[in-house]
Design brief:
CATH architecture of one domain: Alpha-Beta Barrel
CATH topology of one domain: TIM Barrel
Number of strands: 7
Strand content: 15-25%
CATH superfamily of one domain: Metal-dependent hydrolases
Helix content: 40-55%
Shape: globular
Radius of gyration: 18 Å
Strand order of the largest sheet: 1-2-3-4-5-6-7
């Protein structure tokens, strides 16, 4: 990947913390962002609003413009599509209810996956998962990290391949929203919807339909996107009058994650739009 280019202000609109599957607490991540001279950022943890108040407070102290966010995992016609929501009203009752439902589904799936691993002779306790997420918003990456720490696999990628990806020995599906339903949820909470890393979703044909239903932007710049993909999604955004965003998708478990933090070029017009909306 190399979508980076020169830009005037450092920003990152796709970051994860220990509220979901990141390695840094919201406060520590923002302190790191401040050291990298990032001026605009969004915390977009998976299916949770936890940590956003702490992040907002630390950003205010560090003079960083903060956009409260979330990353919803959705599915449509066997395509996994991630939708980022920005500038949400965190007290919106419908949003809180949906997030609670998603959290419960994560809990149920985790119990089933732990049971499957146990049937394979691999014992994992919830206390081991808690080492990687104090908020107990556990996902497959947390299981992968435990499997790596126990020496059962050599990497998280191997953990997914052997045990955790669809079709693998310990995989269990979970409840997911439909992307069109997700656009409505975000809009009702006063937020703005952006499709995350579309190059990974392989569902470009849905972008025009999503744009008709309230999508306002495309995450054009992402570490997984090639130069050609960046160009393609930039053109798609322009064609459908969508804003162009970018983010590192920072998790912080790998040393290379630091290389991309704050290094995706984001147009000043996008930052101004989000700041005023």
């Amino acid at each position: 990947m190399s979508c980076s280019k020169s830009y005037l202000i450092k920003a990152d609109l796709h970051l994860h913390t220990t509220a979901s599957d990141g390695a840094y607490s919201p406060k520590d991540l923002i302190e790191l962002a401040a050291k990298k001279q990032i001026k605009y950022l969004a915390i977009t943890d998976h299916d949770t609003l936890q940590g956003l108040d702490e992040a907002a407070k630390t950003c205010q102290e560090r003079g960083i413009v903060f956009f409260p966010g979330i990353e919803f995992s959705t599915v449509y016609s066997q395509h996994e599509i991630h939708i980022l929501g920005y500038n949400l009203q965190l007290t919106n009752p419908n949003l809180i209810s949906i997030v609670k439902k998603l959290q419960n589904s994560r809990w149920l799936r985790m119990e089933k996956m732990i049971a499957k691993l146990k049937s394979l002779g691999i014992s994992i306790e919830k206390e081991e998962l808690a080492k990687f997420s104090t908020n107990r918003n556990w996902g497959r990456l947390h299981l992968a990290l435990v499997l790596q720490e126990k020496g059962i696999v050599n990497s998280t990628a191997e953990a997914f391949q052997k045990y955790l990806e669809p079709g693998a020995k310990a995989y269990v599906p979970r409840y997911r929203l439909c992307p069109f339903e997700t656009l409505k949820i975000i809009a009702k909470a006063g937020g703005k919807s952006v499709i995350a890393h579309p190059g990974l979703s392989k569902a470009d044909h849905l972008i025009p339909l999503l744009a008709e239903k309230g999508l306002i932007g495309i995450e054009v710049y992402h570490p997984a996107h090639s130069e050609n993909e960046c160009l393609k999604y930039r053109q798609l955004a322009q064609k459908h009058n969508l804003i162009i965003t970018g983010g590192s998708d920072f998790h912080g478990h790998l040393a290379e994650d630091l290389k991309y933090l704050g290094e995706m070029p984001i147009p000043l017009s996008t930052l101004s739009y989000l700041k005023s909306n």
